[in-house]
Write a sequence for this structure.
């Protein structure tokens, strides 16, 4: 007994039909997983946003409680100082240790001094080295001059907040040098509101200095001399000459 032969089936692309159905199942499963992942991501984002909103609401409430528990300056009747406006207990200050408003000093002032009296005293030309000192707030200026023979002249001026502060400092300086046994201190009244003349050193070399006050400014002028080469009286006249020059340059700031 013979059976009829089965018809030949040629699967497309060499794959049987049932294999194609398996691929469809994999595609459907992958799609479902992707959709679930998207849904879970959206849920997580919503949960995090909700938690953040609750934290912000809680923090805001805490800030309000703190503000209510701390009285303001208006409630206590006291004025709260700002950072830009120092209180009376905290005066402004500069690097030189003085306190005061900027005096507008400039290094070019050192070039304006007449060096003729220096050269008359020492008999040699004066040099202006590059060690002029000016504070950042322009409340202190120091001009320094030398010669080839190591002669020297120093002129300095410091600005304070007011005349009372200047006089307190000036009186302290005078008392300090008067108590120093190596200094001879006498009154100086030719320039300024108050001043003193001091001499330090022995018969070989001396530092002769003037310190005087004009308004809220303190001036100091110093000259070193060798007593066997330079006349002390002429040195003091030279000090006064530079005191008068300094007065002319800086009185507008006093």
């Amino acid at each position: 007994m013979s059976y009829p032969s089965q018809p030949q089936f040629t699967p497309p692309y060499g794959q049987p039909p049932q294999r194609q159905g398996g691929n469809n199942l994999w595609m459907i499963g992958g799609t479902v997983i992707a959709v679930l992942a998207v849904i879970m991501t959206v849920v997580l984002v919503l949960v995090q946003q909700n938690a953040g909103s609750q934290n912000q609401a809680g923090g805001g409430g805490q800030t309000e409680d703190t503000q209510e528990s701390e009285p303001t300056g208006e409630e206590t009747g006291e004025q709260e100082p700002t950072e830009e406006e120092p209180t009376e207990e905290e005066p402004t200050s500069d690097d030189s240790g003085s306190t005061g408003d900027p005096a507008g000093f400039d290094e070019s002032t050192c070039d304006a001094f007449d060096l003729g009296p220096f050269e008359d005293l020492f008999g040699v030309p004066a040099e202006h080295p590059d060690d002029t000192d000016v504070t950042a707030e322009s409340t202190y200026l120091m001009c320094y001059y030398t010669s080839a023979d190591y002669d020297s002249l120093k002129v300095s001026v410091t600005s304070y907040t007011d005349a009372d502060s200047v006089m307190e400092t000036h009186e302290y300086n005078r008392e300090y040098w008067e108590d120093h046994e190596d200094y001879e201190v006498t009154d100086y009244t030719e320039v300024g509101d108050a001043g003193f003349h001091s001499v330090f050193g022995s018969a070989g070399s001396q530092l002769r200095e003037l310190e005087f006050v004009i308004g809220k400014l303190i001036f100091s002028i110093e000259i070193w001399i060798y007593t066997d080469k330079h006349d002390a009286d002429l040195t003091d006249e030279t000090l006064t000459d530079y005191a008068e020059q300094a007065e002319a340059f800086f009185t507008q700031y006093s």
In short: Residues 1-21, 61-69, 81-104 have pLDDT under 50 and may be disordered. The chain has six helices and seven strands. Residues 111 and 208 are 23 Å apart (CA to CA).
